[in-house]
Amino acid sequence: MPFIPVIGFLGTDYMKIRDDFKVVKDPYSGEDYVVVPPIIPDVAVIHGLKGDRFGGVTVLGARNDRLLATAARKTIAVIEDLVEPGEVLPGLQEVYVAPVHVDAVVVAPGGAHPTECPGRYEIDAGHIMTYLTAAKDEASFQNYLETYITGPADHEAYLEKVGFRPSEWK
Amino acid sequence: MGSSQTESFEKMIGAISRLLKNGEMVVTGTLSPLPAAGCLLAKHTHAPDLEPMLYGDPENRLSEGLHEFFGVAQKGKVDVFFLSGLQIDRQGSINLSVIGDYDHPKLRLPGGAGSAMLYSMSRRTILFTMTHTKKLFVPKVDFVNAAAFDGETRTPWRRGGLSHVVTPLCVMKFDEDRKRVVLDSLLPGVTLDQVVENTGFDLDVAGREIPVMEPLTEEEQSALRGPVLEKMRTIYPLVCRMIWG
């Protein structure tokens, strides 16, 4: 879609700072509506519990990951478990993202750390605090990056570094 | 928790609960543990037919995802929604974008997300905040992310606006005639002076008798620390551990 009407922006300061938000007349009712252009991400990275080698994945519905996958030019799905295509069934809180929307699948157990993967592991509040503290100034943030991001050789080494072990997983 | 004394956040939950009416569809969004607890408390006490739609509730099954919430609101099914802001002003506008000048901000915030739409499409909106200071309650917000009303030229599709504001000190309400926020009641243990001193705009208290909210009843207290807390632990486990232990 070239643009969509969004209700509620008239009378807010968005109209002062966003010159890409335009007011158009609804051809049906004649009322004024604010329309906004689409967001088309170059790459979307979504995280799912289960997926197959063709790109079918189940993701948490509330995160709008399916919407992201359909909007982006390229989508990378990070999954906890690789399963057979017939076993990719969405759970109660999940939705299914079809392979047509997914360009690459990365099997990375613990891939959502330090955020949560509902049903598998909780948010790592301690590590989030470490990150927040480190992010307060440039030097400590650089130190954080070296310790946890650029330092560890791979994802497994990262999980080892942050003290996140598969034994803690459900 | 450990003590039998009602904590400040529990009084807020009680205040929110009492603002909700039986049969209403009440939706809470992200980072809204107190409103979520308020909904559950209302359902366990005076409003058994309340329909809570709580973001993050594992029992709340959606067919599409979070944007479905927005669709439900646009259809006009949402009776009550909750919003907050880093600044709230006398006209009920909220700021979630920036402190200071937009191009040279003192602080850049995440932004308003769907607040503008939800403020206008929910039948009524209750604002809540965990702190009550002059920095938060300002005469005019630095940036209007969402407005409580549309002014003179009322947009035809606007469905509702500000109903109440719940803080750790008091409950305020929106005066529909004058389009401004006024003081409604004090939370137990709070003085009028405390509220006035910590609010950056006139709350229209001169010559008015401001009632103090009735303390939580035993029924409310035991529902809150029983089934409500039990359910809350499935939606906001981390928050529950932090505030209730």
Give structural notes.
The complex is a heterodimer of chains A (170) and B (245). Chain A is an alpha/beta fold. Chain A has five helices and eight strands. In chain A, the strands form two sheets. Chain A has a five-stranded mixed β-sheet. A three-stranded antiparallel β-sheet of chain A has the order 1-3-2, with no helix packed on it. In chain A, a hairpin with a 5-residue loop joins strand 4 (43-51) and strand 5. Chain A is globular. The mean pLDDT of chain A is 92. The longest helix of chain B has 18 residues, at 218-235. Chain B has seven helices and twelve strands. In chain B, helix 1 packs across helix 2, helix 2 crosses helix 6 (218-235) and helix 6 crosses helix 7. The model of chain B has no long low-confidence stretch (mean pLDDT 93). Chain B has 245 residues and is an alpha/beta fold. Chain B has helices at residues 8-19, 33-44, 66-74, 115-121, 192-197, 218-235, 237-243; strands at residues 25-28, 51-54, 80-83, 87-89, 94-95, 98-100, 105-108, 124-128, 137-138, 161-166, 170-175, 180-186. The interface between A and B is medium-sized, with 28 and 33 residues.
